Amino acid sequence: MKRVVIIGSGGVAEALSRGVAECENLTFVQVYGRNRQRVAEVSQLVSCPIYDSLQDADIYIVAVSDRAVEEVTRSLSFPEQSVVVHTAGSVAMDAIDHPKRGVLYPLQSFTPGRRITISEVPFFVEGADEHTTQIIEQVANKLSTNVMRMDSEGRKTLHLCGVFASNFTNAIYATAADIARSAEIPFDLLKPLIKETCDKAVSVENPRTVQTGPAVRGDIKTQQRHMDMLQGNDNLEKIYKILSLQIWETSKKM
Amino acid sequence: MKRVVIIGSGGVAEALSRGVAECENLTFVQVYGRNRQRVAEVSQLVSCPIYDSLQDADIYIVAVSDRAVEEVTRSLSFPEQSVVVHTAGSVAMDAIDHPKRGVLYPLQSFTPGRRITISEVPFFVEGADEHTTQIIEQVANKLSTNVMRMDSEGRKTLHLCGVFASNFTNAIYATAADIARSAEIPFDLLKPLIKETCDKAVSVENPRTVQTGPAVRGDIKTQQRHMDMLQGNDNLEKIYKILSLQIWETSKKM
Fold first, then answer.
1. β-sheet bridge partners, residue A85
2. CB distance A194–B111 less than 8 Å?
3. Dihedral (C-alpha) A50, A53, A57, A60: value to the nearest 10 degrees?
4. CB-CB under 8 Å, A197 with B165
5. pLDDT tens, position by position, for chain A (254 residues)?
6. How many CB pairs under 8 A join A and B?
7. Closest chain A residue to B205, measured at CA
8. Which strands sit side by side in the sheet containing B26-32, from one edge to the other?
9. So what's the ipTM on this one?
10. Cβ contact A174–B114 (<8 Å)
């Protein structure tokens, strides 16, 4: 049974710790990191003792922020025969200076305290050589039913997709909430619409086929009225204009 | 018991027909419209006979597209004592030329064939006078647990919120799907992330508090790399830039 150490204590580290600890075919060894309080919290979540030093393991999963991967892996010394992977979407595999290096990228948004069904998370695997890749794949397949190989280039594209599908979507939600608030309409009233829009999009092959609204209908009059209402807020005017244009242009190509 | 006629046969008409027909405290009289095939389909869904002429009712719900409201209501003659409402977000109440006129606006995205839990849909009510408003409210309260009064001005803002929360969100999903496709990554792999992003946003008071990604972190390096990947697609470059700016600027104001 593969022994696993998780390095880091944020949302990804917490979710992976839970996933590994709950998996009967993996041995959860420790969660290791600089933030002692969070390490203690995550260790307690998975009922694991806390060690002051890095323990022996078959695979080290460096689940830290994209910017910290290189520094954190350099600051630690890993056993020669172990595999060391990071979980960062936008970081190349070679950011890790270790012969048996690789990547285990989960395409999901993790938040400390929120439970995720880890078995449904798509994991993208890359390894420095075939043997290393297979070891990472073995571990990934025990965590999830959705594992694929993906090189650093493909992973960059995935990460960009994630920015649209998650970060930008959330920004749009926040903007809708702002506009509602300006008319003293509680955000709660938008939630059934937000949920249905998401449910509908994930029920189809291509969300463009269920696009609705003034932009796809070419209803310029309504669009103009909306633009008038946004006047004075430069960003929102631009967002309205460019998204409407994108909807119109792409719908014509279908 | 109020007798209800639905005029129109699109997504809104279908959902309201189901809602009224399933409501023990309302009498569903007929669905009426120009598209005979769709009228037949909706009538069958709710096990209701088809009539060639407009039947007597206490309230007529004109559930047609925003642009058709005025023309359709003008083309019909309603009994003097009946209430006539439309369901259009962006249309003023006075588009209806009838003394007892009003609006019954459901803030939801309706698609023919998709079932919606009508009792959870927020309905916004407006009437030409207090008595008319109360009749519309009575009907709305039988359909949904979420009924509020809202004048034509407020409803315009709601409609704009809906464009962001639904139409623009869907456009972002479609764009993410495009980018994925360009790297031969199936849209299916983005779905767990899309669902979690939505679930997370509707679990909070303000989606801005759960914003993640390179823009909110001020990670210019990653943003620049993403912009490079989008080069050659003007719309996507602009969308990336303005949404990142919006995320950065609004997060600073929190």
1. A61, A102
2. no
3. 90
4. yes
5. 999 999 999 999 999 999 999 999 999 999 999 999 999 999 999 999 999 999 999 999 999 998 899 999 999 999 999 999 999 998 999 999 999 999 999 999 999 999 999 999 999 999 999 999 999 999 999 999 999 999 999 999 999 999 999 999 999 999 999 999 988 999 999 999 999 999 999 999 999 999 999 999 999 999 999 999 999 999 999 999 999 999 999 997 76
6. 280
7. A187
8. B26-32, B2-7, B59-62, B83-86, B101-106, B123-127, B147-149
9. 0.94
10. no
Closest to B84 (Cα-Cα) out of B53, B28, B157, B72 = B72
Asked if A139 and A131 touch (Cβ cutoff 8 Å), the reply is no
Cβ-proximal residues to B14 (8 Å cutoff; 6+ apart), any chain: B42, B45, B110, B112, B113
B46: tokens are 């709710």
- Rounded to the nearest 10 degrees, the angle between the axes of helix A234-252 and helix A220-230 is 160
Contact check, Cβ <8 Å, B250/A178? yes
Please give the single-letter amino acid code of residue A42. V
Query: How long is chain B?
Result: 254
In this prediction the pTM is: 0.93
